[in-house]
């Protein structure tokens, strides 16, 4: 944001100097026609319109950086949740997991997930049906998206006090929700289940993403 303000201020100063110079020329010359003044005005409009795309791109980069920061927070919160569950329940699990060996979303294989991410550039995509909303679809989803809400499944030896995924995320963030800075953004996630037992056990893996462009806006953690 500092870079944006600095660039905007510098550009305004340049525009002001050019405009002031052109005005001085206009008023210092007798017989200056309105047509010539119109040309000056048109030139100024061109300068302004040329600068807009640059600032727009800077804004998009700023939004992307903000979204990545939010995804980092989710990864840290998920890790803390896993560690607390491990201490309290005897086995770690991630938000929305009923047990460590039960997934969230439509993936059980990491290779398939990574392959889908390469083609997941918009929320209006059939891949979206495999993903679950972090804070619930009731918090607003992009038009045409097919994200799911996590639900509690019946299982043996599950923590009886567990909640559906959106509620566990909500409480893990001290009863706050994170909102994507993008108009068509929405935070989604999937969990590949762990498996095995004892020394042969593998931990679950989580991927969180922004629906604005999951291919480029995502974070992955393997515990």
Biggest sheet descriptor = 4 strands, antiparallel
Over all CA atoms, what is the radius of gyration? 26 Å
Average pLDDT? 82
Number of helices: 4
What is the domain total for the residues?
2
The 3D shape can be described as: globular
Q: Which regions contain 5 or more consecutive residues with pLDDT less than 50?
A: 1-8, 25-31
Helix content: 40-55%
Order of helices and strands: HHHEHEEE
**Overall strand count:** 4
Strand content: 5-15%
> What structural class should be given to the helix and strand makeup?
alpha+beta
The largest beta-sheet arranges its strands as 1-2-3-4
- Cα(first) to Cα(last) distance is 34 Å
3D structure, described in words:
By secondary structure, the chain is of the alpha+beta class. A hairpin with a 7-residue loop joins β3 and β4. α1 (2-28) runs antiparallel to α2 (34-89). It folds into 2 domains: 2-57; 66-222, no CATH class. Strands 1-2-3-4 form a 4-stranded antiparallel β-sheet, with helices on one face. The protein has helices at 2-28, 34-89, 110-119, 165-172, and strands spanning 132-133, 187-192, 205-210, 218-222. It has 4 helices and 4 strands. The radius of gyration is 26 Å and the shape is globular. 26% of the residues are buried. Mean pLDDT is 82; it is low at 1-8 and 25-31.
